[in-house]
Structures are given as structure tokens and as C-alpha cells.
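# nightly structure sweep
# worker-07 picked up a monomer target from the shared queue
# config: single-sequence mode, recycle default, output format = C-alpha cells
# input follows
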Amino acid sequence: MNYSTIKKLVAGSLFSMAALAASAQDSTSTTTSTSSATVFGGRSQYRTWSIGINGGVLAPVIPFGTNDYNDWDANFGYGLFIKKQLAPSFALKLDGHAGKVSGKFDANDGRSGTAAGTRQEFSTDINYAVSLKGVVNVGTVSFLSRQKNVDFFIQAGAGLTGYTPDDNGDRTELFIPVGVGMNFRLGEVVAFNLGYDANFLDADNLDRTWANGASNKDKWSYGYAGLEFTLGSKSKPSLQWSNPVALMYDELKDPTLRQEVEALKTRVSTLENTVNQLAADADGDGVSDRFDKCPGTPAGTVVDGSGCPIVFPASDSTAAGQYGTIQFEFDSSVLKTSSYPTLDKVSSDLRANSTTVLDLQGHASAEGTEEYNMSLSRDRANSVKTYLVNSGVDANRVTVEAFGESKPIASNTTEEGRMQNRRVEIK
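# output follows
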């Protein structure tokens, strides 16, 4: 049997099996698992373990590269596997198969049959071929159906094979399997597998033959069909057949989630209204209408935290009304020359009336720290006292008090108001 004939037979068989699987799928397409799986719920919400059995054709050739035999036999092979699905698109599979490969030399293939090491025929038992493979599903997400029904996969790995040539003892060698295949979902538990593996042996002892007298590492192929059984509770979906796109759609479509979104939108709208109310300030005094106890205050009015005007205490000193206040420059306790006439009048009156005493109260504008302004207001009062004492007034008749920025007579928000607050009152 030549390779062309076998290829036609295998192709026909695969087509028939695919049709059978599609028919079985149609009959079970209404079967779905009741699952509460979420997009980011993790692997624990899925079934991830499966086992499988298969049977098919073993041959000592592959469709590409150099083969030792043109006239080869197609023998029955069988296998089983256990698989762990790590993601919808990737799994690890412990795979094994066994059987026999055989062939004979074709005198018409153009090779010299007398070359050293060339055999006329061979038959080798593959006692086992066990490998660990990575399986990648290349058709993971279906945009045409909510649940995947067909998977196309590629797989590769490495393993050990034990075989017995017909005229030699048992051997154990490393081999590399590379393959492709299809999975057809038949239900919640069962799937139908079709696959083809090319196995590359790291030795030239499988057929005991050297092409044209030269060493050529051997290989064999395994085309198979089989069943795969997903393990675990049917209440959980299979990770292999999950469709992440459909799952995300279902999660977004969930009525409970939509209710939560609507409730969140209502809360956001309420919060926006509250913020707008807090930002409203009709009279522009810097206090929100929601907390303004004195709405409609005139523009420029100095208000407190409740929005009501601040009433500054007026000076109750007769002397202050008579002599006015002594003003100072910013951050200064040096007397202005313009204040000398007023201080001379105060000194003259004190010396004329020996029973009069004075209280000098120093003040500052609200610039800098409170501690500094307290010291500055005391220095200003002492400057006035020093002038009066130097003009002949008894120092015991003059007292000094410092109030810092605590008793303004005008607003500290304007320069004009701050100038009025830099003062010494004579009482």
C-alpha cells in the first residue's frame, strides 16, 4: 500500500468522522450547563481535567522530509491521554500511544539495495511512546455561536519511547511529537477528537535501515480518532469550551448588574446636584447659599463663616477721639514725622495736667504670624511712649498694651484696611 492510497483512505475516513461528529453535535446543541461563571472568576469555576482514548493508523513515514521506505505498511495503533486545561486557549497533556510500524524495500525506488546496512523489510513494536505536550487551541473564540462547538489545535512536546526492532533488543529513545487536530463538542461531557502527530526519533534504530547507506534519524506518524471525557461536576462549564466573549456579554447583560448601574447613575446625579448647590453663592461673599445665614449681603462686605457681616469694635477712648491714632508703615515700629505734632500736643496736655495717665494700645494688620504681629504692636506702643518720655512726660504715667492683629478696625483684605490697622491708640 503506497502513501497516496493511504492518504486518500485517511482523508475519506476523517471526512466521514467529521460528518458524524457534526450530526451528533446538532442533536446535543440545546444542552447547556447551568453556570454562574464570571469573566474574572478564576479556573475554580470550570471543569479543567479530561481524559481520552483513541485509535488509528501508525506508519513509519511522515508527509515531509526524507523517508527510508516508499513501500510501507499501515498498522493499527492505540493511545490514551490525560489533559489539564489552563486557559481556554492552552492546555498541558500527558499523552501515550503504542502499536507497530513495518515496511519493506521497493526495488524500483531507485536506491541501491546492496548498500551496507540496507534491509529489505522490517517490523518494530512500539511498546510505548509517552510525552508531555503543550496544546494550543487556535480556534478558541467563536463569534458565530455563544458556545464553542469545534476547536482546532496544534500541539508539540517531548517524551520517551520504548520499542523492539524485529532483530534486536529493546531500546529506549527520546522523541519529539508535533501534531495538529480538531475537537468536536458532543455534549457537556464527551468530545470527538481527530488528530495527526509526526514523531521524530533521536536515533536510527526504529527500522534498522539506512537510506543509500547513510544514517537517517527515524520518524513515524500517528493519525487517530477518539473520544475525550471532561471530568467534574456538570454544574460547572468546561474551560476548554468556554467562550470569553459570550461570557463577558452575559455578565454585562445581567439584570442585577444593570440595576446596580442604574442605581449608581442615580447616586452620581444626586451627588452632582449636591455639589452644584454647594457651589452656588448668589451674593458672592464666599459662603455657599446652603450655609449662608445672611443672604444678599452687599458686595465687598466682610463676613464671617456663616455669611453674616463682621462688626468691628469702635474705639471707646475720649483721648483717642481727641488725638486720633498714630499710624505706622508696613512691618515698621518707627514713628512717622507726620505724627510728631499730635504727640507734642499729647505731651503738652500731660505736663499741664499732672493727674492724667495714658494707656498706649498697639495694633498690627493681619500679615505674618500672630506671634510676630503681637511683638510688632508692642514695639509700636513703646515707640510712642519713648517719644513722650523724652519730651518730659513721667514714664510712670504711661502704660503699654499689645493686641497684635486681634482688634482690627478695618478689613485686612484690602490695602486701605490694613493701613488703618497699623496703629497705636491713645486712651
